[in-house]
Amino acid sequence: MIRKFLVLAVLLACRSLLFAQATSSLPADSNKIEHKNDVYRFKPKKLIVPAVLLGYGTLSLTYEPLKELNSSTRYEINEHQPENFTLDNFTQYVPAAAVYGLNAFGIKGKHNFTDRTIIYATSTLLAAAVVIPLKRSIHEVRPDNSNNQSFPSGHTTTAFASAQFMFREYQDDHFWLSLSGYPFAIFTGVYRTLNDRHWVGDVVAGAGFGILSTEAAYWLFPHIKKLLTRQNINNLQLYPSYQSKIYGLNLIKNF
After folding, report:
1. Fewer Cβ neighbours under 10 Å: the N or C end of the chain?
2. How many domains are there within the chain?
3. What is the pTM of this model?
């Protein structure tokens, strides 16, 4: 039981860190409009939260107390195994979908459809470029022994990238709304462990990678937009795809 509370404490700490990051970004004067370029400026303090999460996740691979915490958590979950719940396959996308839905209903974020799609696509590609190679090189066996691609959690990475995207789009004009994506991200991470698909360390690291990929997408956006503008962005089409349980984004350029 003590171990279970420790795990919950870790997850709640992650949420607290995220909330601290969000509140630290609030402008002191609610009437002061953040300079447009400041949205894309690299800020070292933005690295604090993902660094803490990634540090914990990485240590959990080799540091015995954290490895023991992974194992004991799984043992306690199996003692009180809840019914397998597959909503985590969908909740990882809810915050990003909400951004598009809210914009469609008139609650505007920072960017128009094209620009926010470029940002979210960049975040998705950056996350995949890091997470997929790590899964195939670290070879951590999943708790259910289904394969050896457990670290880091891809679902959790996607969920926190999505939640951070929602936060970034709405933090200035709709601050409390901007935080509403994080509960879905936390739910996704928790249920990856409850469904015996990931260790706690996998989930915590996934949260770090997700946040960092979205932050990097905003830092890179001006450069990517400039490049696409040179190539005539009006001739570009971007749309989602799904095949064989794999989600993706397709980019088509008309010459």
Report:
1. C
2. 1
3. 0.81
